[in-house]
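Slack export, channel: ligand-projects

TW: morning all. Re-posting the request from yesterday since it got buried. We need the structure predicted with the small molecule present, not the apo form. The ligand is pyridoxal-5'-phosphate; the SMILES is in the block with the sequence. No rush, but it would help planning for next week.
GE: picking it up
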Amino acid sequence: MASLNLNWIRDRFPALSQTVNGLPVTFFDGPGGTQVPQSVIDAIADYLTTSNANTHGAFATSARTDELLVAAREAIADFLGCDGDEVVFGANMTTLTFALSRAIGRELQPGDEIVVTRLDHDANVTPWSVLEEQGVVIRVVDINVEDCTLDMADLERQINNRTRLVAVGYASNAVGSINDVAKVIQLARAVGAMVFVDAVHYAPHLPIDVRTLDCDFLACSAYKFFGPHVGVLYGKRQHLTRLRPYKVRPASDESPSRWESGTQNHEGLAGVVAAIDYLADLGRSVLPDAYSRRAALVAAMQAIQDYERSLFEQLLPQLLQISGLTVYGITDPDRFAWRTPTAAIRFAGQSPERLAHMLGDRGIFTWNGHFYALNLTERLGVESSGGLLRIGLAHYNTLEEVHRLLNALDEITSPSAAVL
Ligand SMILES: Cc1ncc(COP(=O)(O)O)c(C=O)c1O
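GE: finished. pasting the full token output, ligand included:
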């Protein structure tokens, strides 16, 4: 196992010590939202206690709120590898993506094309496909059904010189597949198209560097990486200043605040800073001489990636041993670099909902359904029968919890339990 100190980590997350039916709670629900460290909870309470105000006022709490907004942009800039003025906050990723699609839509002509995929969460599909109303053509890239990866040959076919934007996920929130986003960007660049990357599922698992990636936009949600419910959008400065977001007249036309309609979730932003600082602390615990918060964050995410992979290497082969159980997605350990530690499964004769309930009763929290990755569950032919059961590992999970899950699945799926 990699060098994460699990006691140090778990001590920071008060939710992890809960019990259900007298059993310890195991949170394998992270892809739907992770738990938060105490420092995030404290930062939110502290903001509301000491700094609660609107922005740009001539008094102390408002000045502190202005400072907080700058600090929150800098924190995310360190997390993503960009500058603070390239960071936009919003209610969630979906809201931000709709706002961006409306602004980009203002530049598009009938016949212009946007490429989306069957692997994506609908928040990276419908905000683009609504532009069909103004004559934009939407092209949908297929998947390789056998391992739930993006069909890159199809992607290449769908991109042409009318393509204006490619909307792609960094990793699938349903089956965990990581896309070769660098290659997608290369293909898009060849025809002068922009690339929007949905990194919501990727962000809690691996380091992100938007400069190296050279994407035009990248969105994530702080509640998926140990923070509160705040959406985050990175946009290249040239786009954020050129595009025209829909905004009310009195609001600032300075970028990036021109993208942030209305009052922001200030207490949430205080939590975002604390979440990033938690990750940076984690990074310094594995790389004590990290020379900057960015360096500490990269070290944290690399250590998280290694640790989660080692946990997943324990989980997946054992899942495959359970008779009647199907795993959707990459199952070859040699290709685990191309997946997150998120397993989507079905068990013959049991609906995912029933499985999730039986696990939930045992204190093991998983999600069932389509997780809004509707194109995918439809393509896999599982949508009409309850979708998938999703087991999402996070860095605060332990090997003991993996064994608890495997034991519970054994018990639930044993022939004697089939009538339950
Ligand atoms: C991959 C992915 N994209 C987008 C979203 C939507 O994020 P939000 O809830 O912040 O709108 C989610 C949420 O589950 C997701 O997992």
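GE: first-pass observations. Residues 6-36+294-413 form a domain with the Aspartate Aminotransferase, domain 1 fold (CATH 3.90.1150.10). The chain has a mean pLDDT of 96.
TW: perfect, thank you
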